[in-house]
Specification:
The chain is an alpha/beta fold. The chain has helices spanning about 10-30, 60-70, 90-100, 110-120, 135-150, 165-175, 195-200, 210-215, 235-245, 250-255, 275-280, 285-305, and strands at about 45-50, 75-80, 105, 125, 155-160, 180-185, 205-210, 220-225, 260-265. Helix content is about 40%, strand content about 15%. Strand 3, helix 4 (about 110-120) and strand 4 (about 125) form a beta-alpha-beta unit.
Length: about 300
């Protein structure tokens, strides 16, 4: 069973193959209308369940379109409409769903839900985000960097802001793809140190630097994310803003990075909070390429999981 649960749980060589496959598939359909079927139809006859316990625009639409382009069919299910973890165990839902569909993508709250689903499903399971990680997003980010700047190995990536689930997958990717990673943010919002230690154990240079202006020196890629994640209490909003205001990615900060540095944000963004519109719409920004590449890289991830 080939699940895609986290970047650190898939072989580094397979991750590189997924990126290469995604770039090839993207190039093969360049300019085609979005609803046009790919020449190759590897998901012909396959049914894919897309389960969302949290809101989504990019993940939902990109998986749905990707399956259809590859000849498969989808059913989009909201957690509220299912008996997932209430009414029946997640294990039983996994066993039942496996009798109906060929692949399950799930966006959920607790990592334990994803892992229980994967343990008991007899079809591949893909992590579409948990409170802990967001691997499909960072695969799209690596693809986007490599399209624009070549191999990410040995490059310097700087994350400014909250040490959240998206950062965690960047830490996994640093270990697997071999890039340097600097976290800059206030200490109360540090990532789990275990993510940093794991990347270091794989040879990545991973550091914490409290001063964002020092952190971005020599950066090839600057990344940020929303200051209040979906699973954070809204009551934390004002405190988060006070803690993170100094870590906003603005033109002054980007000017300290390498002249050809890229800027990424997984979106959705709160413009002029974590990043200014000047940066988001400026010459360093590749945020909409990132969003597009969710489609291409997830198609490659699904092919990897299904072996097709
Ligand atoms: N970046 C991302 O996962 O977007 P959605 O929450 O809209 O899916």
């Amino acid at each position: 069973m080939t699940h895609f649960l986290d970047i650190n749980k898939t072989d580094a060589s397979a991750l590189c193959d997924i990126i290469d496959s995604a770039i090839s598939m993207k190039q093969a359909r360049a300019g085609a209308p979005k609803g046009t079927a790919d020449a190759d139809q590897p998901l012909d006859g396959r049914m894919v369940a897309l389960i969302f316990e949290k809101p989504s625009t990019r993940t939902r639409v990109s998986f749905d379109v990707g399956v259809r382009q590859m000849g498969g069919q989808t059913m989009v299910l909201s957690g509220a409409d299912m008996q997932l973890g209430h009414g029946e165990t997640i294990a039983d839902t996994a066993r039942v769903m496996s009798r109906y569909v060929d692949l399950i993508m799930i966006r959920t709250f607790e990592e334990a839900t994803l892992l229980e689903m994967a343990e008991h499903a007899t079809v591949p399971v893909i992590n579409g985000l948990t409170n802990r990680t967001h691997p499909c997003q960072i695969m799209a980010d690596v693809m986007t960097f490599e399209e624009h700047r070549g191999p990410i190995k040995g490059k310097k990536v700087v994350w400014s802001g909250d040490g959240n689930n998206v950062f965690a997958s960047f830490a996994h990717a640093a270990g697997q793809f071999g890039f340097d990673l600097t976290f800059t943010g206030p200490e109360p919002l540090d990532p789990e140190y275990g993510f940093l230690e794991e990347a270091r154990a794989k040879g990545a240079n991973v550091v914490i630097e409290r001063n964002p202006h020092v952190a971005v020196e020599g950066a090839d890629l600057v990344v940020t994310d929303t200051w209040v994640s979906m699973h954070d209490p809204q009551s934390a909003r004002e405190r988060r803003h006070n803690q993170l205001r100094g870590y906003q990615v603005n033109a002054e900060l980007m000017a300290k990075a390498n002249p050809d540095a890229l800027f990424m944000h997984c979106l959705p963004a709160h413009r002029d909070d974590e990043a200014t519109s000047e940066v988001m719409d400026g010459p360093h920004s590749v945020i909409f390429d990132e969003a597009e590449n969710r489609l291409h890289v997830q198609k490659a991830i699904m092919r990897h999981c299904l072996g097709v």
